[in-house]
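Support request from a user on the community tier.

User writes: "When I paste my structure tokens into the form, the page sometimes reloads and wipes my input. The last time it worked, I copied everything first. Here is what I submitted, just in case something in the input itself triggers the reload:"
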């Protein structure tokens, strides 16, 4: 999975999250234990599997394997929307999804969810699923200490859950795909399946609506999980591309589902 480079908005989000990070880091250190399972950072020297914070509180652990498949089977497609919610673009994305009868998975940045709880609730009310995308969208998370990874994942989970009115995220997507064995185990212990993607539309680079549509058409054979964005800049191309792509996928015999759990 390619990292998303050149996205200057990440620095602003990170700066906005520093207050949360500073206060929460100490509270989250207790979760920072290592994990033995291989992953994108296989062989990174992990040792012990992280315990499941809140075990006994109704949280059911899920698989640590990074999900790509759709719960709608071989012809299923998973639409995933990253980095929001955003007051300018999330409502437009929701409208396009509603017009096409499509449910999606929204991978939310903790600070964005905290700032726009009304949008988080709107996403849930429309029948979409939530995904933890960390507190501050740090694409170098896999190079950071486990205490930092823990803070980013668990604090975002709390922020998203609070913003939604109590609906917990069902997945964890590492920013830029920066998973580690530790982060995967920690997320899975909290009932959040690690979530990858098969088709990167690169809409964050503003390649043009036609280019985004062409990428989906050319690469959907690679797998069902398609990556779009509803924040981090002007997403008018994304909205326009979704208006074209969703009907086209239906015409090709695809149905829309959620990533496997």
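"...and here is what came back when it finally went through:"
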């Amino acid at each position: 999975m390619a990292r998303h480079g050149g996205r200057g908005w990440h620095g602003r989000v990170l700066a906005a999250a520093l207050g949360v990070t500073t206060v929460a880091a100490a509270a989250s250190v207790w979760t920072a234990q290592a994990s033995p399972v291989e992953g994108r950072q296989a062989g990174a020297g992990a040792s012990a599997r992280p315990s499941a914070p809140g075990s006994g509180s109704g949280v059911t652990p899920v698989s640590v394997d990074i999900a790509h498949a759709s719960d709608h089977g071989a012809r299923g497609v998973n639409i995933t929307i990253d980095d929001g919610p955003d007051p300018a673009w999330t409502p437009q994305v929701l409208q396009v999804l509603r017009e096409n009868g499509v449910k999606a998975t929204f991978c939310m940045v903790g600070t964005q969810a905290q700032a726009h709880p009304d949008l988080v609730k709107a996403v849930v009310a429309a029948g979409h699923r939530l995904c933890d995308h960390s507190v501050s969208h740090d694409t170098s998370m896999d190079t950071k200490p486990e205490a930092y990874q823990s803070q980013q994942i668990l604090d975002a989970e709390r922020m998203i859950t609070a913003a939604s009115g109590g609906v917990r995220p069902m997945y964890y997507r590492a920013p830029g795909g920066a998973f580690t064995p530790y982060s995967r185990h920690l997320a899975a212990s909290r009932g959040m399946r690690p979530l990858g993607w098969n088709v990167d539309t690169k809409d964050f680079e503003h390649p043009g609506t036609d280019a985004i549509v062409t990428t989906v058409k050319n690469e959907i054979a690679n797998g069902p999980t398609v990556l779009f964005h509803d924040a981090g800049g002007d997403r008018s191309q994304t909205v326009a591309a979704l208006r074209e792509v969703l009907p086209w996928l239906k015409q090709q015999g695809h149905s829309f589902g959620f990533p496997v759990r």
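Agent notes: The reload is a front-end session timeout and is unrelated to the input. Residues 4-49, 51-56 have pLDDT under 50 and may be disordered. The CA atoms of residues 77 and 256 lie 5 Å apart. Escalated to web team.
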